[in-house]
Amino acid sequence: MSAVNRVIKNTGILYVRMGVTVFISLYSTRLILGALGVEDFGIFNVVAGAISMLTFLNNAMATATQRFMSYAEGAGDLSKSKNIYNVSVVLHLLIAILVFVLLEGAGHFLFDGILKISPERLFAARWVFQCMIVSTLFTIISVPDDAVLNAHENMLAFAVISTIDALFKLSIALFISYATPYDKLMTYGFLSALSAIILLIIRRVYCHRKYTETRINFKQHFDKKLFQQMYSFGGWSFFGASSSMISNYGQSILLNSFFGTKVNAAQGVANQVSGQLGAFASTMQKALNPMIAKSEGAGNRQLMLKATMTGSRISFFLLLFFFIPTLIEMPYIFDLWLKNVPEFAVIFCRLLLVRNLVDQLFYNLNSAISAEGNIKKFQIFEAILWLIPVIVSYFLFVQGYGPTTIYFLFIVYSVTAGLNKLYFSKLNLGLSFRTFANDVIIRCICSFVTVAVISVIPVYFLPASLFRLVVVIVLSSISFFLTLLIFGLKKDEKSLIFNYLKKFSS
């Protein structure tokens, strides 16, 4: 099977999974918000947010390990794959210990004056924090297995595990809504951690039985030189991811400190919507990233750059398809979805979706830079850029600016960070600015403007209603596909799509 066919097959598998999990997750959020109430939902998001921000850390470390795994796969070296896995297990055990110490230390500061939580809910908040720490440690330890699944492009296993995860979340939401006799916030924290642990055990057992390189034998397969290489690469990835984690959680802390837990509830709703809709694009990236790393490992830089630019454009279009009607009809959608819509939830979510679209233009450049391996200077610049919006927001909040300020600043950050990625892609990979601008930026921005202008027309002639929502969706879908055919896709991509449609229909 060719690399392109593999990407298409894996993307298809992951989209079937998305069709199941997105609606389950969004419905679960509705149940949880209703069961906990705005204040407890805000508490969970600001406390568990400290842990959920470690997703950035986990993804970065998984990317680092996957880069070495995929590189070895591309070179066809099974012995090196075994060494990489064993080294990564040791590396992530050390990281888990470090993170545990840091989180326990940070907890004392968070709950002794930084977070604004009512005294009667402080014990429950501390309990949730401890539950999330346990979940985080298991997540970090499981990174090598996650990297193996990605390196082997086993998206079916990933899809099954993700579906089980969504069903767990739905079961927990139903349980705390209708069955639990205990404190709902504490029960939710405990069961969330327990489900994460169960899923990670499932992943570990599956990988151990499926792939020979996952056998742990430190005496035979621990390579000190490889450990130093992975430590160096992973250390800089850790540095960049830690900055993003601090920045994102700093956003939650600032909003909580200046505006209280109700604004954190709005932030949690916005993050949930953004995460679920954005998963449609990240799904394709998950299928594409192994191809980028393997192409570089096989010495095919041209294919790697082509895959990077094509992936950036296609993933942007996938977001665009869902984001445009959501951006336009968000107030009505939120009223349908939630029993009690937190203040600022709509504006937060709109700004976050715009930021995600900007990020998407440059997102795959991260994978390309990581595949090449020279990431030290890139990560230093990334870390500096991550922290600027939080620092500036603090001073603006002191001056009396509103909570939306930080979201506007992060949009500016996304543009600046994208240019930084583009610069290092030129420096390290030889990527042409003009080629990237013509193939990705111009096509994507023109598509966005065209579809948005056409789709917003019904707003000026029809009142907010289910009928108008349907009209916007239909108009957006038609204009989206026409825009792609006219100037969104390149000629060879159109031919590839038409050929697959013919095969599917025959």
From TrEMBL:
GO terms for cellular component: plasma membrane. The keyword Transmembrane applies. It comes from the Bacteria. It is found in: Cell membrane. The chain crosses the membrane at residues 12-36, 42-62, 83-103, 123-143, 155-179, 185-206, 314-334, 340-358, 378-398, 404-424, 436-461, 467-489. Keywords: Cell membrane, Membrane, Transmembrane, Transmembrane helix. It is a multi-pass membrane protein. One of its GO terms (molecular function) is antiporter activity. InterPro entries: MATE_fam, Poly_Biosynth_Transport. This is Lipopolysaccharide biosynthesis protein. It comes from Dyadobacter psychrotolerans.
